[in-house]
Amino acid sequence: MSFMEQLTARKQKSAAPSRQTRGASEPASRPAKSGFRMEFGPSRKDILNFSNQLAVMVRAGISLQDALESIGSQIEKEKFRAVVFDLKNRIEGGQSFSQALAEHPDVFSNLYINMIAAAEISGSMSSMLQQLVEYLDQEAETRSQVVSAMVYPIIIAVMAVSTTTFLLTFVLPRFLTVFAGREHLLPTPTRIIMVISGVMSSYWFLIFPGLGAALMGFWYVTNKTAGGKYWWDKTKLRIPLLKTLCRSLYITRSMHTMGVLTNAGVPILDSLSITAHISGNMLYEHMWKGVHEAVRQGRKIAGSLGDYALMPGNVVQMIQSGEESGTLGEVLGDISEFYARELKTVIKTVTSMIEPIMIVVMGVLVGFIAMSIILPIFKMSSLATG
Predict the structure, then answer these.
(1) For residue 333, what are the contacts with CB-CB under 8 A and spacing of at least 6?
(2) Mean pLDDT over all residues of the chain?
(3) Contact 82/11 with Cβ under 8 angstroms?
(4) Which residue, 6, 16, 125, 165, has most beta carbons within 10 Å?
């Protein structure tokens, strides 16, 4: 029976008594605030703060139940506070901490649950919670770096589209009335701009909602449908600048997750399964699932990874060295640290390259519009003097 199957069996065994005692020990919650209040579930930052506080309290010798009650009483979000109190009640009802966490899969990931389960078996809850905090903190830092790298290009793109739209819908229609009745004398670029300007001025109430619907449709297809998500994940690994960034991100995330789980004592098959789940790309997820199946049949991780082109050869060689020397966890940690540093370098490089590219694109758009206005002026003046 695998590690995760044992966890499931233990959870089912103690589920009944926990339900009976659930309502008995729940602390009095805060009085509900009057008025309408929209609230979402806990964010990644909430989970990080919760884990950090719990690690400090457990390290100080405070019991899990008391720590959870103290943390829960300070949480502002009602949904997350209810989850924390439920964890406390389930533990008091006879469940282990990992079993209680497994009752909330929408809040706590498989990685989180398995690391806590491994800590319960090895008796290293305090150190494992600290490892979880470090893992979540690094994941948050990596995500923040990637988001920050995308902010500037998005701002430039929005400015370019806004400027072009303003010129085409407000400036040009007033200026081009000068050439009314002389359209046959205008150069081709000016005619093109006049057509685009006319369409945008007359049908803006259809164009902008249409663009919004197109963007929402693109997001839905690439995030909510398997075929669209696979296509987008594959495309991200082909776009010149984006592929380097995404590749470093996926390798860093995979190696870091596997290293943390392996060092925590989680069985390798469960580690591979969790790594596939959190990879963030369907191609990498398919690769790790394939490796999981190959390892289940008796093959080595390095040999299985060699069948795929998504993992660099030097990474495969280092993993092979770790397997042969019995230091796989340490090797995976070293690889993740190396690619984390490389990811920072890649983000800086990509950001520095995107900036001039976006400026050039914006310059070409504005320059084309300016040329379309200036050319007919010169042509009209030459006809008048001729």
Answers:
(1) 255, 256, 259, 260, 263
(2) 82
(3) no
(4) 125
Q: What is the enclosing helix (H) or strand (E) of 180?
A: none
Minimal CA–CA distance to 116: which of 182, 211, 50? 50
HEC per residue, 334-378: HHHHHHHHHHHHHHHHHHHHHHHHHHHHHHHHHHHHHHHHHHHHH
- pLDDT at site 40: 63
Give the Cα separation of 263 and 115 in Å (integer): 10
Sign of CA dihedral 119, 80, 53, 63: negative
- Among 22-31, 46-55, 155-164, the range with the most confident prediction by mean pLDDT is 46-55
pTM for this model (two decimals): 0.71
∠ at Cα 240 (236, 243), nearest 5°? Answer: 40
Distance from C-alpha of 335 to C-alpha of 187, rounded to nearest angstrom: 59
Read off the pLDDT of each residue in 165-179 and give the average, rounded to a whole number: 77
Q: Residue 156: what residue type?
A: I
Residue 275 contacts residue 281 (beta carbons within 8 Å): no
3-state secondary structure of 194: helix
All residues at 6 or more sequence positions from 125 whose CB lies less than 8 Å from its CB, including other chains: 58, 64, 97, 116, 119
Give 309's DSSP letter.
S
Contact 128, 261 (CB under 8 A): no
Calculate the alpha carbon distances from 264 to 138, 337, 364 in Å: 17, 17, 54
**Which amino acid makes up residue 110?**
N
Q: How distant, in Å, are the alpha carbons of 12, 85, 86, 96 from that of 24?
A: 20, 11, 11, 18
How many other β-carbons are positioned within 10 Å of the β-carbon of residue 23? 8
